[in-house]
Amino acid sequence: MEEIQSQSDLYRSSSSCASSPTSRVPSSHFFYVRKPGSLRQPISFEDSPEWDDPDARMEYEAGGVGGGGGDSINDATATPISPSLSKINSGSMASPHVPEGGGGNAVRKIAGASIAWRDLTVTMTGKRKYSDKVVKSSNGYAFPGTMTVIMGPAKSGKSTLLRALAGRLPPSAKMYGEVFVNGSKSHMPYGSYGYVERETELIGSLTVREFLYYSALLQLPGFLFQKRGVVEDAIQAMSLSDYANKLIGGHCYMKGLRSGERRRVSIARELVMRPHILFIDEPLYHLDSVSALLMMVTLKKLASMGCTLVFTIYQSSTEVFGLFDRICLLSNGNTLFFGETLACLQHFSNAGFPCPIMQSPSDHFLRAINTDFDRIIAMCKNWQDDNGDFSAVNMDTAVAIRTLEATYRSSEDAASVETMIFKLTEREGTQLKSKGKAGAATRVAVLTWRSLLVMSREWKYYWLRLILYMILTLCIGTLYSGLGHSLSSVATRVSAVFVFVSFASLLGIAGIPSLLKEIKIYGSEASNQHSGAFVFLLGQFLGSIPFLFLMSISSSLVFYFMVGLRDDFSLLMYFVLNFFMCLLVNEGLMLFIACLWRDVYWSTLTLISTHVIMMLAAGHFRIRNALPKPVWTYPLAYISFHTYSIEGLLENEYLGEVFAVGEVRSISGYEAIRGDYQISPDTSSKWRNMLVLLAMAFGYRLIVYVLLRFGLNKNVSARLLLCHRKNNSSSR
């Protein structure tokens, strides 16, 4: 923290330069004093001083000195920046120290890449109320070793533009225009870029180092010691050395890291691949001012290593604004400005909207282009009627947006951007190459081991369910204890088996939140091609087997001996295996429902309803032969795994058993039970039921694979989210 504090002190003077011209205001007296008698009045655009600083504008020189030996891309990126930004973009940031075991005296440099976009337009049906164009004819570029920020109010197209540059638009979106990487229009291969979502799922039961190490194992080919090196580099680059051995946390029983550190961990996960270009959606999302400054200083340090940073931001403080190299200002999909930060201030001044005194530049920009302020303006006017001395903000946002857009289109800034894009694209530079992926077998092994570790540490995953199963089993065992082996106990014993299987399956609902979190983690990793549907399902299946078997054997032993079933070891082992298969099927069913809804409430409601229907069709309340043929027998009785599990357990208990009727006559176990439950007289039928349960366990996971692989569940999730938004809007 001392290092960050010292760096923030260095940037204070430079950030003041980003708020007002240095020729007008000394760096030690950044904040102006208001005019006498105006302390009660809100700051408006008319209160601002006039700025006519020629040094605040960007100047592009045609013949920059490049290091590429005639390469047009290198020549373009060597263009000198504005003198006003020389303090900010200089190498005043000290290189971070390498932690012990890092294996070097300095963090290794990252080979960045230039990116440029020309006439980029993105259309999405239903995204906008009056137009399908989310981004309209945007032009811009980003250089290695710089931070380019896309700024604008909510729903201005920031994230859409970022996704378009990274090639991550949804299938419903259509992109027009051109995106160049190192002068080439080729698609960025795997590992050449990183993308950090606005909200990323982290595994709270792992430490920072463990989380990044498992991410490296999933992403990178090669040997283990090589991956440890890149993990330490990522930890050092994001200033996470003090938190490397701390749990990420985020659960009710784990305090873990704060939001700022968690956000840096999500960025460090992408740095494991050492990408040339890093796209970040809202790096300051849900961060306070201190965490935001710490994050941006860390990203500035990362940019100094050579990485090309492009990210979106909604609002920033003055100090954070001073760290930006270039800014792309959007409003309703229109580009209102692209260029260096000080030039943006001059652009607003030229358009008639100079930055007010004592106001952050980003606040000033959003005040001018955010249409939501119109409602505040109307409110202020009403207050002015009641309080005559209260000055309203008399500015129409729509007029300001049109003025800024027209001023920018006819300005030298727009012409300079087009010139720079031409220089970046007139000749192709170095082609980005794929860095290779870890093999499928390696990913399965990593996910299996990680799942075992996570499941063993998180008590809400399986340990809670184990406790609930033991409590349920003890309750059932004491309720049905001392039944004996007489003919009169058959009906009661059937009820005991039914209650044990049905209620134990229903208690599996406790695992829904953990499965939903696991699916979210998979979605976050799959979006960056770190994982796949097959390896995720196989790793999750293999990792859950030890815990499900532990629950089955512990619950089965307690139930078996408390109820007093037949004293035979082979019969006991079949009971354990049958209940284990029942748990496997139930786990697959929960995974299917959780993947279908992606919501705790709807997943819980659907799972309870499904279990109730399966219990009704299991043949206990009414024998299966007597069930109505349509619906209840076909298909409900045949798709209910309760039916096959209970039938197999009862066949295991009663086939081969003989009951005496009086002193002379005796009947078989099959004859004794057929009035209470329908089973097969074939002794091999119980093994067929076991195979059916195994097929169901794999069948549910096959359906989940189809949902994850082809995204068929996205329509259900999107409709659920749309209904939620409609309910919120109607309640307002």
UniProtKB/TrEMBL annotation:
SMART domains: AAA (SM00382). Coiled coil: none annotated. Residues 1-28 have a biased composition (Low complexity). This is ABC transporter domain-containing protein. PANTHER family: ABC TRANSPORTER G FAMILY MEMBER 11 (PTHR48042), ABC TRANSPORTER G FAMILY MEMBER 3 (PTHR48042:SF12). Residues 1-72 are annotated as: Disordered. GO terms for cellular component: plasma membrane. Keywords: ATP-binding, Membrane, Nucleotide-binding, Transmembrane, Transmembrane helix, Transport. Belongs to the ABC transporter superfamily. ABCG family. Eye pigment precursor importer (TC 3.A.1.204) subfamily. GO terms for biological process: transmembrane transport. Pfam families: ABC2_membrane, ABC_tran. Residues 115-357 form the ABC transporter domain. GO terms for molecular function: ABC-type transporter activity; ATP binding; ATP hydrolysis activity; transmembrane transporter activity. It is a multi-pass membrane protein. Its main location: membrane. It is found in: Membrane. The chain crosses the membrane at residues 462-483, 495-516, 536-559, 571-594, 600-619, 691-712. CDD domains: ABCG_EPDR (cd03213).
